Amino acid sequence: MVAWAEIIGAPDKRRRYRSARGKGGLVRIGWDETLEIAAAAHVHTLPEYGPDRIAGFSPIPAMSMASHAVGAR
């Protein structure tokens, strides 16, 4: 959580992180690191923006959280 908050909290680091996304510079990582990054982002978001920003429900499969969040920031 602290590492994620450090990236998101510092304007220069946040700008570098966001500008690097979508450029095809993917790095293969394992599931442990992947889950750690996702969990850190969720743990940071919860107290910062509230639980409604990380949880939701839709009876329509195409509007599931996974499908919907692909294009959302």
Automatic annotation (TrEMBL):
<dbReference type="InterPro" id="IPR006656">
    <property type="entry name" value="Mopterin_OxRdtase"/>
</dbReference>
<dbReference type="InterPro" id="IPR050123">
    <property type="entry name" value="Prok_molybdopt-oxidoreductase"/>
</dbReference>
<protein>
    <recommendedName>
        <fullName>Molybdopterin oxidoreductase domain-containing protein</fullName>
    </recommendedName>
</protein>
<feature type="domain" description="Molybdopterin oxidoreductase">
    <location>
        <begin position="14"/>
        <end position="71"/>
    </location>
</feature>
<dbReference type="Pfam" id="PF00384">
    <property type="entry name" value="Molybdopterin"/>
</dbReference>
